[in-house]
């Protein structure tokens, strides 16, 4: 099932809203990170730059084949060899299990612009199970201000709410970051 309000505008417009490399670095993705998993990888906006920062493999999961096709085309154009794409629903345990066909361990998981979904705590719980001990999980989301895009205000989580959900999922809160102009980030460790 595709999560509520999880569509995006054209890639060109979508990618004016972020500075992916700077966001990833702020949320402590670095060359010491081996394997990386991007849940809801969309156009590859974060997955592709992340694959160039880490030392191992980058895996993207998305339920939308159209977005995966766009992402796959970009990967081919750049001839990136360390990215794997999985077509599936990240609420489904079987989809998440597929990750282990590509990597035995996951050191970093991103849930970017995802936690306005119907069951955010469940998504955090399931994905956190895939993380290595001391692995990191980064969340970004739209601020609850007027922004040029983003889900309905009523379903945007606050940084505090994200922190509470992460802690309920058994993760240790590390920090909240301002990712101006439109986003905030929250980083956890397992
Ligand atoms: C708002 S977009 C964010 C994309 C990307 N994370 C980014 O920030 O650029 C939400 C993404 O989640 C994907 N998605 C929605 N429901 C999903 C599900 N059940 N399982 C996996 N991906 C899903 C959508 O297809 C879309 O690519």
TrEMBL record:
Keyword Methyltransferase: yes
A Pfam family hit: Methyltransf_25
Gene Ontology biological-process entries: methylation
Methyltransferase domain sequence ranges: 37-135
Top-level taxonomic group: Bacteria
UniProt KW Transferase keyword: yes
InterPro entries (UniProt xref): Methyltransf_25 (IPR041698), SAM-dependent_MTases_sf (IPR029063)
GO molecular function, one term: methyltransferase activity
Keywords: Methyltransferase, Transferase
Protein name (Swiss-Prot/TrEMBL): Class I SAM-dependent methyltransferase
